[in-house]
Design goal:
Layout: H1 11-18, H2 51-59, H3 66-85, H4 96-106, H5 112-115, H6 139-158, H7 187-198, H8 205-223, H9 228-233, E1 239-243, E2 250-257, E3 263-267, H10 270-282, H11 319-339, H12 344-352, H13 355-367, H14 372-379, H15 392-405
Antiparallel strand pairs: 1-2, 2-3
Pfam families: Phage_integrase
Keywords: Cell cycle, Cell division, Chromosome partition, Cytoplasm, DNA integration, DNA recombination, DNA-binding
Main location: cytoplasm
């Protein structure tokens, strides 16, 4: 890469060279951060010599929390790229004023050709056409980005890598009012989504597989209230049965390893178990999983147990694949809504909906029908206690309460 008289390369060349993933970015030596103006000259507690190495050391703290790691990596990577390309300085030379400019940049990443992904395209990270943004960030996303970067800068100060945190000078925000949940589907919209899935074509083997997987996924997201990370991170073998301590009736549960590596028991209602059996029959599997069965909750569409030779259990499909399945169903529901002339505002809401909206929809349904303590424990809003393993009576009461009020009604 050539240098200009100012000591930095052409911005376009820099962004192309820098667009490799974090840890592989190639930049001029002056932009690595080795001599950043905000570098601490005292004792360091990390071995990092460059800004990229320092950020990777910070990210290593989140290796056991995939969601936190992904969001933290994204925000750090964006700032590193912007710092080098737009400001022509390393991250360890950024000032308070630079970060104010960056905050405004997030609301309108320009030039768009350099920073924004082509409309409607989701490209792999190493694709030459990949860009850091899908478009301007909303105010809430900007605030979240700055919170993450403030955490990064503060940690680098504690580690002895930076002299000071340029974001520590930001104006203190007053405590916000309790947020009102708006990202959920009202009864008529949720009904439209279910009708869209039921109406999916089932003429060919592939169409039937797509239908079965979509119906099972939406059942799982709503009836179990799972996060997308929990759908891809848990197995069918996590379903288990035990006897009701009072009535002697069989109760099915699913043991979920969730956010922050916290475990919780989710009632597998009769309706959910019926949907599980239907999905497994579509896969040509036994009705119920064996204890500890390592099969994923969602299978690739082309997988069949009857294939010859019999295939091994597939890998769980990715978070992005689950996201795509859900978005396609919501888009189809929005198209049907528009075709019926039922209103553009609701159709737009369906198109905006994502996987997490189903969790909010489930939470709203539970909170309006079941004891809030049962809803809290089912959705994992608080951690399981050690004693809950032994208090089966309380769990059985929760199972009955959830089963009575929380239904999908295909």
């Amino acid at each position: 890469m050539r240098e200009t008289k100012s000591g930095r390369g052409n911005p376009v060349e820099l962004v192309l060279a820098s667009q490799a993933p974090l840890g592989e970015m190639v930049v001029l030596d002056a932009l690595t951060g080795r001599d950043g103006t905000n570098r601490s000259r005292g004792h360091r507690q990390i071995d990092a010599e460059t800004d990229q190495d320092a950020v990777l050391a910070w990210l290593a703290r989140f290796v056991d929390s995939p969601n936190t790691l992904a969001s933290s990596r994204r925000e750090a990577e964006r700032l590193l790229l912007w710092s080098v390309v737009e400001r022509g300085k390393p991250l360890s030379s950024l000032t308070h004023e630079d970060l104010l400019i960056y905050r405004r940049f997030l609301a309108n990443p320009q030039p768009a050709a350099r920073w924004v992904m082509p409309p409607g395209r989701k490209l792999a990270r190493r694709d030459p056409a990949w860009r850091p943004f899908a478009g301007p960030l909303a105010d809430a996303s900007i605030r979240q980005s700055m919170v993450i970067l403030n955490s990064l800068m503060g940690w680098l100060v504690e580690a002895g890598y930076l002299s000071g945190n340029p974001l520590a000078l930001a104006k203190r925000r007053r405590k916000a009012a309790a947020p009102r949940v708006t990202r959920f589907l009202e009864t008529d919209l949720w009904q439209a989504v279910r009708e869209t899935i039921v109406a999916m074509p089932q003429e060919t083997l592939r169409e039937r597989a797509v239908y079965a997987r979509s119906r099972w996924l939406f059942s799982l997201l709503f009836l179990a209230g799972l996060r997308i990370s929990e759908v891809v991170g848990n197995d069918m073998g996590d379903f288990f049965m035990r006897t009701d301590a009072t009535t002697g009736d069989p109760r099915w549960w699913v043991q979920v390893l969730g956010k922050g590596d916290k475990e919780r028991l989710v009632p597998a209602t009769t309706e959910l178990m019926i949907e599980l059996m239907k999905y497994r029959r579509a896969l040509e599997l036994s009705d119920l999983p064996s204890p500890g069965e390592p099969s994923p909750l969602l299978f690739p569409v082309a997988w069949r147990r009857s294939s010859h030779p019999a295939p091994a259990w597939p890998e769980a499909i990715s978070r992005s694949a689950v996201h795509t399945i859900v978005k396609e169903v919501f888009a189809a529901a929005a198209d049907r809504w528009e075709a019926d002339g039922r209103g553009q505002v609701q159709a737009d809401k369906l198109r905006a909906a994502s996987t997490h909206w189903l969790r909010h929809t489930a939470a709203s349904n539970l909170a309006n029908g079941a004891d809030l303590r049962h809803a809290r424990d089912t959705l994992g809003h608080s951690s399981l206690t050690t004693t809950s393993i032994y208090i089966h009576g309380e769990d059985d009461a929760r199972h009955s309460a959830i089963s009575a009020v929380h239904r999908i009604g295909w």
